[in-house]
Amino acid sequence: MAGRRLRDAVKTVLMSSGHEEYNSNVHVVIAGLTNTYSQYVTTIEEYEMQRYEGASTLFGPHTLSAYIQEFKKLAAALTSGRSVEPGPQPPDLLNEQISLLTPVVMDATPPGVHFGDCSSDVPLNSTFKRGDTVTVVFWSACPRNDLMTEGTFSLVEILQGKESWFPAYDDDDFCLRFKWSRPSKLSTRSHATIEWRIPQSATPGVYRIRHFGAAKSLFGSIRHFTGSSSAFVVT
């Protein structure tokens, strides 16, 4: 209901601007996350009930009214072409936060082994059926060095032609699992186990599994790496 009232308020301002492009067919979309800065935004009626959402509206019963007031100003500025002052910024408290999470000291591999090398690969010339699980273990590094928010830790690629590999599944897919582990808490070595449960909808062909990560050196520099399994066939 809060979103509906906000959209209606913005639409009313746009339609009353006199611009022909803003008519009854205007569709207002609320898109974006506050990243928990303001928690829930409820109507004043919901706030008075103090159920879960109302009790989690942190800035009081008039939070929605404040949003509507400011978005109406933005909508009016949009139609008139006026610039808008940025206004006050919330304080940056990142440097004042206390973390009890042990920092990553460094990552390492055994002598002669590189990050991204396979510790346990698929057998050469192996064939799997849909419904089987393919497991590959890579020498890896702590995922906290780079959370790969714009990428992926694991990827299944399919071969098209003789040399062209294309993404087929990544760790957004439920069929692909990425598991990270150390042999002990104080060890600098770690493994990334990638399990692909081949879905029934998988296209028959030649596949491989890839791993992406970032390793931290003793002096604090971060180096990204990749690794690939051997190719295998899915029938």
From TrEMBL:
Its cofactor is Zn(2+). Pfam families: Ceramidase_alk, Ceramidse_alk_C. GO terms for biological process: cellular response to oxidative stress; ceramide catabolic process; long-chain fatty acid biosynthetic process; sphingosine biosynthetic process. It is an enzyme of class 3 (hydrolase). It catalyses: an N-acylsphing-4-enine + H2O = sphing-4-enine + a fatty acid. InterPro entries: Ceramidase_alk, NCDase_C_sf, NEUT/ALK_ceramidase_C, NEUT/ALK_ceramidase_N. This is ceramidase. It is found in: Endoplasmic reticulum; Golgi apparatus; Secreted. Belongs to the neutral ceramidase family. Binds 1 zinc ion per subunit. Its EC number is 3.5.1.23. GO terms for cellular component: endoplasmic reticulum; extracellular region; Golgi apparatus; membrane. Zn(2+) binds at residue 40. Keywords: Endoplasmic reticulum, Glycoprotein, Golgi apparatus, Hydrolase, Lipid metabolism, Metal-binding, Secreted, Signal, Sphingolipid metabolism, Zinc. Residues 1-69 form the Neutral/alkaline non-lysosomal ceramidase N-terminal domain. Residues 71-234 form the Neutral/alkaline non-lysosomal ceramidase C-terminal domain. It comes from Salix purpurea. It comes from the Eukaryota. GO terms for molecular function: metal ion binding; N-acylsphingosine amidohydrolase activity.
